[in-house]
Design brief:
This protein is an alpha+beta fold. The chain has 13 helices and 14 strands. It has helices at about 1-15, 20-50, 80-85, 120-125, 155-160, 230-245, 260-265, 270-300, 305-310, 315-350, 365-395, 395-400, 410-445, and strands spanning about 60-65, 70-75, 75, 90-100, 105, 110, 115-120, 130-135, 150, 170-175, 175-185, 200, 215-220, 255-260.
């Protein structure tokens, strides 16, 4: 540890003596590592982190599937949900939800809210208990008992000042009194409406019970031991029964599609995120090659210093350790800059939402992402520091010290390695440019597709 501490101190002193080299290297590494950190934060939230519900692998969604209508997937209707709920054999519980936008009045300014109306088993299906009070129960959807709400923690804190005495009191929504029965834990969000500030029971009207309007998002919890394939088979049989009981009312290929919530959250973006991660990985390799080249050029200018240290008794192993430590310190400085760049880049990614990220994803720089950045920084330092350290070990003490030794074969070998790094950098950059060019060309072709009519001035 004493030797490592001494190596770190020497590295910082050496980097301080070369501010231009240090600034360029840190900025290069910061951009490369920062891009990887930003993309990994999205991958961590979307692909790696489990959904914030109890046993999320048992949660599925059921949709109406119309293959003949451009492979359309639609929400379920009220009559459909009532049928599926009674015929289910593989589900432990089932629930539906739909959006709601009530206006809160009373204390303070009137406010239009983002809310969700849910069926009685909705909270039981997601398996997350209330942090304060209780959640909604099946009896709350009985006519005359539906004037109750559960608040999100963020809304309870910002609008009502985290008043624990609010539970049991009423608030005015659309001019009607609703009793607050509970507050959910911090960070809880529904899968289909992550912006919801409160949840209220949904009581189906007699007209809705016979209408075929498809507007309800269906979530079910599989019974223990039931896999999604078995559930899909059962709902396929239910679809066949529904078509037989309603001849001529549904397309012949109409079906019920069962998808796990994990697959629903990641299926449409998994490939895009992995491609992005591979692309920014190439960017990091380019950064490593550039910094390794800078390190080799700098090592050539420090060859006599290194030779003198060897002549005074420093072992080649100790010199390699010193140079690798210097590279890792440089990479950690780049990692610190990368965290700052990623903290700015992640909100920019979310604002663009180019990959159509799932609504339940809570994306940000958490400890796992920071640990990833630290690991990548350390590995990066070892990768681009290995070549200069190896050149030091292979260098000739006598050739370097004697007058005119700068033109020795060892320097020619270093020059060849540097040229090789330049070739590798250009090759990697060309790969990225070709890929980007093909993407732009594909996008241009999509934009230029003739829709078969003149779209000008049409809304």
């Amino acid at each position: 540890m004493a030797s490592l501490f001494q190596d770190v101190k020497y590295s910082l002193r050496s980097l301080r003596k070369s501010p231009g080299f240090t600034a360029v290297a840190v900025l290069t590494l910061g951009l490369g590592i920062g891009a990887n950190t930003a993309i990994f934060s999205v991958i961590n939230a979307v692909l790696l982190r489990p959904l914030p519900y109890k046993e999320p692998e048992r949660l599925v969604t059921v949709e109406h599937h119309y293959p003949s209508l451009n492979d359309l997937y639609a929400p379920v209707s009220v009559p459909g949900f009532l049928v599926y709920e009674t015929k289910k054999q593989v589900l432990e519980s089932a629930a539906v939800e739909t959006g709601w936008a009530p206006t809160l009045t009373g204390d303070g300014d009137a406010e239009r809210l983002a809310a969700t109306r849910v069926s009685g088993d909705w909270f039981r299906t997601y398996g997350v208990p209330a942090a304060l009070g209780r959640t909604l129960l099946p009896e709350d959807v009985a006519d005359g008992h539906e004037r109750v709400v559960v608040l999100s923690e963020a809304f309870w804190r910002t609008r009502f000042g985290a008043d624990r005495g609010l539970v049991g009191r009423t608030i005015l929504l659309n001019g009607e009194h609703y009793e607050v029965v509970g507050v959910m834990p911090a960070g809880f969000r529904g899968f289909f409406n992550r912006r919801a500030q409160l949840w209220a029971p949904y009581v189906f009207t007699p007209a809705q019970r016979t209408a075929g309007n498809e507007f309800l998002s269906f979530t079910g919890r599989l019974k223990p031991g039931v896999d999604p394939a078995r559930a899909a088979k059962e709902f396929h049989n239910i679809a066949a029964q529904v078509k037989a009981e309603n001849p001529g009312q549904l397309p012949a290929d109409w079906d019920l599609a069962v998808t796990t919530l994990n697959e629903r959250a990641t299926g449409s973006v998994r490939s895009a995120l992995l491609v992005l991660f591979g692309a920014v990985g190439l960017v990091l390799l380019i950064a490593c090659a550039n910094v390794a080249n800078l390190q080799l050029a700098r090592a050539a200018s420090r060859s006599r210093e290194v030779a003198v240290r060897v002549a005074m008794g420093a072992s080649p192993g100790a010199l390699m350790r010193q140079l690798l430590t210097e590279s890792v310190v440089l990479a950690l400085m780049g990692g610190a800059l990368a965290v700052l760049l990623a903290a700015w880049g992640v909100p920019a990614l979310l604002a663009l939402n180019a990959a159509n990220l799932p609504p339940a994803a809570d994306i940000g720089l958490d400890p796992l992402v920071l640990g990833f950045t630290l690991l990548v920084s350390a590995i990066t330092g070892l990768v681009f520091g290995f070549a200069p350290a190896l050149r030091v070990r292979q260098s000739s003490l006598h050739e370097t010290l004697k007058e005119g030794g700068r033109g020795a074969a060892g320097d020619l070998g270093s020059l060849g390695l540097r040229r090789g790094l330049v070739v590798a950098t250009v090759a990697l950059a060309l790969m990225l440019l070709v890929g980007a060019g093909l993407m732009i060309r594909s996008f241009a072709r999509l934009v230029g597709v003739d829709p078969g009519f003149n779209p000008d001035k049409l809304l």
